[in-house]
Design goal:
CATH class: Alpha Beta
Radius of gyration: 19 Å
Helix content: 40-55%
CATH architecture: Alpha-Beta Barrel
Bound molecules: 5'-deoxyadenosine, FE2/S2 (inorganic) cluster
């Protein structure tokens, strides 16, 4: 085993120079992958956790340069699911074995705190054995607290990049790196299990930025880290930017597994989009979560964050079976429990 990888596995940390070496050289890849897989096995065996993703609104008041559902994209046909439609997705998901529902959407002012709380309570009441995850952007401390009290236990909010300078190149001036990070600390303080993360290979990203991201994650200590390659969308300012690389994404997944042995690491939809077997490769590189789509088929093509997104023509049941098959093909087992992070104690 290379000394560097051994050191990373033992200390869960490296110097900037050492991180840079691992992230930029192919020669460590095989070693890195094997060790990440071993650590994932120590922590989670061959189990893969499922999260059912419900994309409940594609309205968004933000204008991020990378995102297909940004405010200024006039080519998007906008939709919102009703509370009943969301509950119907949960029912279908529950029957398929999902015990975690992720409600993801743009920052849509229609969904006031009252509406969000009503939806969360209704899900909580009907499915008391399920975890409810929200992923709906930056809100005030009070709003996050209200959702938590209504029954949401987890929140996903990728920090996107920990560098304010890089953040400014991905977002218009009205958004701030600082506010985003503050939101994550608020969520943790309230008691949420938190997910942060980045896009790999986003425009202007350097290895130094990625190392800054690793340092930020060490500070935040999130329960989940979601990463996937940046993929361009034809109707955004980044339409001509090149896509993030599969190889670097896999490398980073392995580094994250070694740095955070117990963290939940999804093999993301973007990873499955950049390569037909991307998610399988992600699992082998250290990931342990898959988030199949539970959104109604009628809206899936409207939630296009990037071009060529997979699973937009499939029924929920198809995605569920497909996930099972893909996991089994590489010797992993999909499990249908809540899949809490190993280091998170429920009070
Ligand atoms: N390519 C890859 N990932 C994207 N996301 C948004 N747009 C893109 C894109 N073009 C990611 C962001 C966001 C998450 C929901 O999806 O990181 O936080
Ligand atoms: Fe959706 Fe494969 S996971 S079709």
């Amino acid at each position: 085993m290379s000394e560097l990888i051994q050191k990373l596995r033992e200390n869960q940390n490296l110097t900037e120079e050492e991180f840079k070496k691992i992230l930029s050289c192919e020669e460590y890849d095989e070693d890195l992958r094997q060790n990440a897989d071993a650590v994932r096995r120590e922590q989670y065996g061959n189990q893969v956790y499922l999260r059912g993703l419900i994309e409940f609104t594609n309205y968004c008041k933000n204008n991020c340069y990378y995102c297909g559902i940004r405010r200024d994209n006039r080519n998007v046909s906008r939709y919102r699911l009703t509370q009943d439609e969301i509950l119907e997705c949960c029912r279908e998901g529950y029957a398929l074995g999902f015990r975690t529902f992720v409600l993801q959407g743009g920052e849509d002012p229609y969904f006031t705190d009252q509406r969000v709380c009503s939806i969360v309570s209704a899900i909580h009441q009907e499915f008391p054995d399920c975890a409810i995850t929200l992923s709906m952007g930056e809100k005030s401390f009070e709003s996050y607290l209200a959702y938590f009290q209504a029954g949401a236990e987890r929140y996903l909010l990728r920090h996107e990049t920990a560098s304010p300078e890089h953040y400014g190149k991905l977002h218009p001036a009205e958004m701030s790196c600082r506010n985003r990070q503050e939101c994550l600390f608020h969520l943790k303080k309230i008691g949420y299990q938190v997910g942060a993360g980045i896009m790999v290979g986003s425009p202007y990203q350097t290895l130094d930025h990625i190392i800054e991201d690793l340092r930020f994650l060490q500070k935040l200590q999130p329960q989940m880290i979601g990463i996937g390659p940046f993929l361009s969308h034809q109707d955004t300012p980044f339409r001509n930017e090149k896509n993030g690389e599969l190889k670097l994404t896999l490398r980073l997944l392995s580094v994250l597994r070694l740095m955070f042995p117990k963290v939940l690491l999804p093999a993301t939809t973007a990873l499955g989009t950049v390569h037909p077997l991307g998610r399988e490769m992600g699992l082998k590189a250290g990931a342990n979560v898959i988030m199949p789509n539970l959104s109604p088929t009628s809206v899936r093509k409207k939630y296009m964050l990037y071009d060529n997104k997979i699973c937009t023509g499939d029924e929920s049941a198809q995605c569920r079976q497909c996930t099972e098959r893909r996991a089994a093909s590489i010797g992993y087992e999909v499990v249908t429990d809540r899949g809490d992070a190993k280091d998170f104690r429920r009070e």
